[in-house]
């Protein structure tokens, strides 16, 4: 019976492919178009942290990210240039999948006309890239209310479908933006912000104010400082343990966890990895978590803070 259930689950899961690229927390703030520059992509490829899926479970968090940094290049690197660089590549050189893991824009609310105008260049680049390779968009706390009318060829994961489960070489990985399991107060706030009533009200206010309310809110959000979160080794391990426990327990209890795209499953699921953004950390660790087994936890780097992307190898 279990074997049959496992086969069914495998068929439901979308595949996470080697060479997949993850971009998280870029906090795009609008701006003009830019031309593609393959030299920029060369830098990105060199700077991508390598996955340690095949490495020792005892590999430390401090040495887990194998980075080759170029400070000047990273300072000048721009999200649109990276997307342009991918778009310019021939099909044989493209990553098989690009995962946009939330907070890609600093304020992108799909229902609001002013927000669509402010993020037009970003939307155009994502749509162009989705014509060439698989693109996934995990909504974050800065970008939500996005649907297929805006990104028609992109697989969109709103917050209520996160974490989403993917198959990676026969192992199950849970993917999410990361602003989940934070606390009851935050949960009430973010659910209210994502509700259909709130989104409709925001759209009406935007139209009635001729975009002035959105411009004011956008300026306030843009003015906030965004920080890279750093941990000592012991503190990071404690943080990871709490995150792993939250994910495993939630997946064990819930029949609404997104499997592949939109199907749910009540079957007991053993996850082998977690990939999330939101925290602007850029570290990973692979080890045994007692009763939860061996799990690899990957906290994605913030593109805004660290000018880095993550490639799953």
From TrEMBL:
<protein>
    <recommendedName>
        <fullName>Calcineurin-like phosphoesterase domain-containing protein</fullName>
    </recommendedName>
</protein>
<dbReference type="GO" id="GO:0008758">
    <property type="term" value="F:UDP-2,3-diacylglucosamine hydrolase activity"/>
</dbReference>
<dbReference type="GO" id="GO:0009245">
    <property type="term" value="P:lipid A biosynthetic process"/>
</dbReference>
<dbReference type="GO" id="GO:0016020">
    <property type="term" value="C:membrane"/>
</dbReference>
<dbReference type="InterPro" id="IPR043461">
    <property type="entry name" value="LpxH-like"/>
</dbReference>
<dbReference type="InterPro" id="IPR029052">
    <property type="entry name" value="Metallo-depent_PP-like"/>
</dbReference>
